[in-house]
């Protein structure tokens, strides 16, 4: 069965659940009280939160294959124009969110989640139109090996030795020279210039999965290949991580393999359950979020201005809610997480309305 002309419900659901997870981890009820795995790791390691962004980039890669496979041999000039315009729009929206609410260009941060999505979409889409899957696999391997060699062999200028610690590695040094504006952590930024290359590799792994899904192989065989690739990628990433740590902030090569492996396992499990067995119960929430994925991500930042930034009396709504739940005997971490889930539910209301009205906002 070929999927080139049919809707992949499992991918829609994975996209939506990933966006919902983004909102949940970005907006805890209290930043002082968060379960460990709902925080980004301070440096090396992997938490649930660290998985969210690379899985979304993987989904972008799969989506590119499904969207452009039939158009690949058409008028590429027109496709390039659409790809570049869409990337610029995503980047512009990212800048709008970074500048809210003061719109102070002097303190602007020129990188972020949507900025990275824009670059990954641009790079992966152009690669897809001009390469086959074997070339894409070689490009991915070259990026990962080259990035590993660069970070482990090139001494940080001014330090005189190879460093992988925060703010003193070659990635941070490169940003200090060439990245304009404010950096997220003062001396370094998790969405850095150099780490954009391995993040594009994360998108390409999704493209390879997408290529598998549009073949004429039997659905069960596709699942077997996806799950096998997921296990192999995760294991390789783990062992590579023993020498080149799994690190989201640097987007290390081992991090790409581990997270792309997990993404393949998730997509394989969902594809088997939803698209093969037809068991769609429980996926509708993900599908609704996924139908306007980037729009709901933007909406979350806008709604947060009230739910987290506007004082009602002497406290903001999230502070009132968390304090009330803690006063009832609930642990602070649990209260904070429940408020985050409440905020996800608030975001669900407008996207559900859009979905019912068949309004799909495409940047």
Question: In words, what does this structure look like?
Answer:
There is one protein chain. The protein has helices at residues 9-26, 48-68, 76-99, 113-130, 133-153, 170-178, 196-213, 219-241, 253-276, 284-291, 293-307, 317-327, 332-356. With 363 residues, the chain is mainly alpha-helical. The chain has a domain at 9-24 and 44-279. Helix 4 (113-130) crosses helix 7 (196-213). The two termini are 31 Å apart. Mean pLDDT is 94; it is low at 1-5.
Search tags:
about 375 residues, 13 helices, mainly alpha
Molecular shape? globular
Distance between the termini: 31 Å
What share of the residues does DSSP label as strand, in percent? under 5%
Q: What is the residue-averaged pLDDT?
A: 94
Tell me the number of strands: 0
Q: Extract low-pLDDT stretches.
A: 1-5
- The secondary-structure element order is HHHHHHHHHHHHH
Rg value: 21 Å
Domain Heparan-alpha-glucosaminide N-acetyltransferase catalytic: 7-224
Keywords: Acyltransferase, Membrane, Transferase, Transmembrane, Transmembrane helix
Protein name: Putative acyltransferase
GO molecular function: acyltransferase activity
